TrEMBL record:
Gene3D superfamilies per the UniProt record, alphabetical: Glycosidases (3.20.20.80), Golgi alpha-mannosidase II (2.60.40.1180)
Catalytic activity: Hydrolysis of terminal non-reducing alpha-L-arabinofuranoside residues in alpha-L-arabinosides
SMART domains referenced in this protein's UniProt entry, alphabetically: Alpha-L-AF_C
UniProt-recorded name of the protein: non-reducing end alpha-L-arabinofuranosidase
Keywords: Carbohydrate metabolism, Glycosidase, Hydrolase
The species this protein was found in: Micromonospora andamanensis
PANTHER family linked to this entry: ALPHA-L-ARABINOFURANOSIDASE C, ALPHA-L-ARABINOFURANOSIDASE C-RELATED
Domain Alpha-L-arabinofuranosidase C-terminal per the UniProt entry, residue ranges: 291-494
Cross-referenced InterPro entries: Alpha-L-AF_C (IPR010720), ASD1_cat (IPR055235), GH (IPR017853), Glyco_hydro_b (IPR013780)
Keyword Hydrolase among UniProt keywords: yes
Assembly behavior: Homohexamer; trimer of dimers.
Length: 509
């Protein structure tokens, strides 16, 4: 049986776990908004048209910041189309997703929905087909208390108080040839700097995210970040990262080790950012906003995109509705482990996306809403990863992968907040349970350990409309604590979260 030995010490920390690490993403795409979060006439919908069953699931998932309104969609979006009397709003072509956008939900409605779910708005501006002028007008509309036509327009549209949006994305995936208004790094870097400067002339307190690469596999990866930051370093607070993973050709072993790729991605972007900082002799630190990450079977979407015709521009079509398995959830748990282990530099992240579109939550029009398998590792980690991320010393057997070579059979992250220690574990072995020993002697752990996670004899099992509760969280009753050493047996292809209370929080007498 494979083995792993972990050592934790409260003095060895990575950094604070910010709530913004558990952000989500809502794009005007497919059935995300319409027939997803917003379905007037649904039995659970309020007078505002928002489904309350979905609101409850989003609250349970525990997303902090929510990025909106895109994604690729934002690069063709006129924010003005989504404000004012709903009946007078125009329908427009959504070129990114070959759909019709009815604009029945816009900024005000979305902020109202965020108030229902208790999350913060992270707004993206269109730097594809528009520029600094429109970004500043939007900011004036959202954040200026009063005294100008835009602020008065907001008040006339029902919102006297400003939205006071703190976090803004300066466009989306501008390195991608598929993006409306795609630019090279020099042009985008100058545009991002110019837009950021103009926005800060309205509101100095903003937190601004420049677009990094849309993936580590992009031909311009690395150089894109360097050039963009050479122009925009002083003007922005974050550079973004995007990563989507999928199983290729049945290679589950490599897929399970996707966190290895995410680790390398983060570490190379940090190196590039810090290189620019060194060259600029800057005292300022730019952090990473991993503002799109998930499992996405992108090849299925590429097939679908080939069938689009000029005669059909559907409203809220079924797009990117991936059905996630137990294996997908275990990979997602591994990606969360990677984010936690880099909590010092990845200070904001957004699971892409939230409802129906590559989502942890699915809905059926007129019917139920349910949790996909990937819901579980996210909700548990968001709820229990608190305080400081700890540096975990991992001494583990290895398991082979075709893509990454030999990798540790167990991936691990840990956090500590006062009396509660949480440990997150992924067993990457395809067929064997792994015994994990965790040295907690630097703490004062009590025996009341809870261990829950996700695994199944059928790693392809999933939840769907016919069987929405097929997969759920399970308790692992193998955890034993003796003399400060905790042992637990992890089933093959599994993700587990341990919560270990301390008698007296370490550091307190
Ligand atoms: O999340 C789906 C799409 O993936 C987003 O619109 C885009 O930013 C990325 O390519």
């Amino acid at each position: 049986m494979p083995r792993a030995h972990l050592t934790l010490n409260p003095a060895f920390t990575v950094g604070p776990v910010r709530r913004r690490l558990f952000g989500g993403f809502v794009e005007h795409l497919g059935r995300h908004i319409y027939d997803g979060i917003h379905e007037p006439g649904h039995p659970t919908a309020g007078p505002d048209g928002f489904r309350r069953d979905v609101v409850e699931l989003v609250k349970e998932l525990g997303v902090s910041t929510v990025r909106y309104p895109g994604g690729n969609f934002v690069s063709g979006y006129n924010w003005e189309d989504g404000v004012g009397p709903v009946a007078e709003r125009p329908s427009r072509l959504d070129l990114a997703w070959h759909s019709t956008e009815t604009n029945q939900v816009g900024l005000h409605e979305f902020q109202h929905w965020l108030d229902l779910v208790g999350s913060e708005l992270m707004l993206a501006v269109n730097l594809g087909t528009r520029g600094p002028k429109e970004a500043v007008e939007l900011l004036e509309y959202t954040n200026l208390p009063a005294g100008t036509a835009r602020a008065a327009q907001r008040a006339a549209n029902g919102r006297e108080e400003p939205f006071r949006i703190a976090m803004w994305c300066l466009g989306n995936e501008m390195d991608g040839p598929w993006q409306l208004g795609h630019r090279d790094a020099t042009d985008y870097g100058k545009l991002a700097a110019m837009t950021a400067k103009a926005m800060r002339q309205v509101d100095r307190e903003l937190e601004l995210v420049a677009c990094g690469s849309s993936g580590r596999g992009m031909p311009t990866f690395g150089e894109w970040e360097r050039v963009v930051l050479t122009h925009a370093y002083d003007d922005v607070d974050y550079i973004s990262c995007h990563a989507y993973y999928q199983e290729h050709d049945g290679d589950l072993a490599s897929f399970l080790a996707s966190g290895v790729d995410m680790d390398a991605y983060i570490e190379s972007v940090v190196a590039t950012v810090d290189h620019v900082r060194t060259v600029k002799r800057s005292a300022k630190r730019v952090d990473l906003a991993f503002d799109e990450w998930n499992i996405w079977y992108m090849s299925r979407w590429q097939e679908q995109a080939r069938t689009f015709s000029i005669d059909e521009w559907p409203v809220a079509p079924r797009l990117l509705e991936d059905r996630y398995t137990v294996a997908d959830a275990v990979v997602l748990g591994g990606l969360l482990i990677s984010l936690l282990n880099h909590a010092d530099r990845v200070t904001s992240a957004n699971l892409a996306q939230l409802v129906n579109v590559i989502a942890p939550i699915m809905t059926e029009p007129g019917g139920p809403a349910w949790r996909q398998t990937t819901f579980f590792p996210f909700s548990v980690t968001s709820r229990t990863a608190r305080g400081d991320a700890l540096r975990v010393l991992v001494d583990a057997d290895e398991t082979p992968t075709a893509t990454f070579g030999s990798v540790p059979v167990v991936a691990a992250a840990a956090t500590c907040a006062g009396p509660a220690i949480s440990v997150f574990l992924q067993n990457r072995h395809l067929t064997e349970a792994t015994t994990v020993t965790i040295d907690l002697r630097a703490f004062q752990p009590t025996g009341a350990v809870s261990a829950q996670g996700i695994w199944d004899t059928d790693v392809r099992a999933a939840n769907d409309l016919r069987d929405p509760h097929r997969v759920g969280l399970r308790n692992n009753d193998t955890a034993r604590l003796s003399d400060g050493l905790l042992t637990v047996e992890l089933p093959p292809v599994s993700w587990t979260a341990l919560t270990i209370p301390q008698a007296t929080p370490s550091g307190e007498s």
